[in-house]
Description:
Number of helices: 21
Structural class: alpha+beta
Number of domains: 6
Helix content: 25-40%
Strand order of the largest sheet: 9-10-16-15-12-17
Amino acid sequence: MKGVVVVESPAKAKTLSTFLGKDYKVIASYGHVRDLVSKSGSVDPNNHFKMLWEENVRGKKQIKEIVTNLKNSDNLYLATDPDREGEAISWHILEILNGKKLLKNKQIQRVVFHEITKSAVSEAFANPRELDQNLVNAYLARRVLDYLVGFSLSPILWRKMPGAKSAGRVQSVALRLIVERELEIEAFKPEEYWSLHNLFNTDKGDFLSTLTHIDGKKLEKLDIKTEQEAETIRSDIATKTYIVECIERKSIKRKPYAPFTTSTLQQDASRKLGFPAKKTMQIAQKLYEGISIDGAMTGLITYMRTDSTNLSNEALDASRKYISETFNTKYLPKKPRIYKTKTKNAQEAHEAIRPTLCTRTPESLKNSLTEDEFKLYELIWKRTISSQMESAILDQVTINVQSTDKKYKFKVSGSTIAFDGFLRIYGDDDKDQELKLPNIDEKTILTIKEAIKNQHFTQPPAKFNEASLVKKLEELGIGRPSTYATIINVIQERKYAVIQKKSFIPESIGVLVVSFLKNFFAKYVEYGFTADLEEELDDISNGKIDWETVLNNFWKEFYATINSANELTVTKVIDTLEGNLHDYIFKNFEDNCICPVCNTGKMHLKLSRIGAFLGCSNYPECKATKSIDGNDATAVNFENASQKILGQDPNNNNDNIILKKGPYGYYLEWEKTKDPIKKKPKRLAVPKFITNIEALTIDDALTLSNLPKNLGKHPKCEKDVMLCLGRFGPYILAGDKTLKLEKNLDFLRIDLDKIYQKIERELNQSD
């Protein structure tokens, strides 16, 4: 055997195997094989930030397979992804193997490629390199920073802000963006204003124009504030005679968009396809690692985590050749278009996201891709090809009209597409609408068909959606291509914000957490500080700064802040939150915040393990509660745990199973059945990700109590299919194949046919 090759995923392994042949054994690590021990003290700031690592269950199995196969080969090829995470996975594997003293007389080679094609893989294996320790150090620094923030700050949140789940170095800053935008929207006071328009009639067609000047003064947006003002002007406008003062004609060039980076792909997939960032990255990963095309695993796009807009010379030449042969030569610029990314510290050596073969059109792949895979591939293909096409040319016409007494001026602009250029295959419907104006001459006398006044109100800033949040994070220099989807996912998992109608809505606990952090950890949720830290991590990866120096500088000040925060009392925290968020917390009360039940006490913010709510100061005499959104909050009056009999357990003498709620959440309790060890009633926690508790049935409870549950053998694969629940959520285990399930109640009600189909697809890909 010529060598053992290690990659991250089974799909990537399968594709690589088709290129390398039987002389190489390609093994998937299934991502990271180990991580920091999940407990306090796994990083020691007083000992050069020494870290304690532990192998995960899957990692141990894959390491064993690597060791077994290395006995028959002297060459180990590390072919993990070409970024920090990929470098880190290779480093972890080497560290484990070195610790076992299994690399003596073995040749270690790092091979890197940005697309999984035969030519790219062959070139990578012909030109291996050593492990890039700078990239590894950048990964270690990021991992340590995230660990120190999480394991130092989260416990303070738990103690001082009951109900809060966690804080994160980047996650909390992204949440701050969402919260501050929401508070800005809530505080927004709309202003009324009016605009005036004339619908002019000509023998060549009508056109609507807008009033721009009165008595030579340019009208500003808010100048006409009332309907009375608008009507006075409208009435006067209607009495005037108008003439075409001048007509301006010019050609405008619209240049094509740059090829996709991770950020712009997520933004366009969100806007055009409605894909969440996580879904976009999952599909892109499949397209990168390989899809079965005519029986052969084929990588369809280049690496999907990149901040570069570069295209290789080969890609440029291939794109230009395709454009030349497919379209008229007028669609091809004289020179290739070269794009420079605006992102700080972008890795220009990397490429943008592009098809591995531009002649592989979306239509040619339609039968090989799922509907969503096709949509994303088509988006990437069109963006790449269009980026090398000629600019579109728009003929813009502006008609300037004024009253004959020169008191009023009106203007209207229209445009038509003279040459579609790149718009032939890729454009924005909202930007590319044509408005054709009648072909009239200067000095033409115009007849008013109708004088119109329109009422408007100023609008608050738009809520963040996934696309705009990613764009803002990128503009601020916060996070990196590999982290955007994770940031968005964590914010939702922590229940700090939800997405409604494609927009982020912060939950009350999210608003309170941000206020807490801004008051007591202000520096660490500043946009500039977080961006500067990201830049320092980039400098580490480029070898410009020592990673321990960055960590020491951060930890010294952060540790002092943590110690100071430990002295905070919950009363101090509540007083601070009430002071800073008074308008938000008490938005449904009069200024005096009088209790609506007893009419003598005042409502105050209360914090509990299950969430924040408002309670009466006359407690316990008055037990009135309200949620912050103003609804009755009987659900947050935690003195009496709610309970409900779901049904009977046939496996335990038809014992009643009762759904109860305690201080740590919901759980199931068997009325008579005792735990054989604890000698207490048998109890089982309901997973916290199940939020629609009222929908929980006796069948759901029985399934939950029987996990892991054997669902039977797959009819074609003859593998036992197990429904399981682990620390990271629900999943299906079929042989050695793991399939994650969505974190909701539906995992207890799975559609076996769909699961079988998914297993079969996954197994076919990993063969």
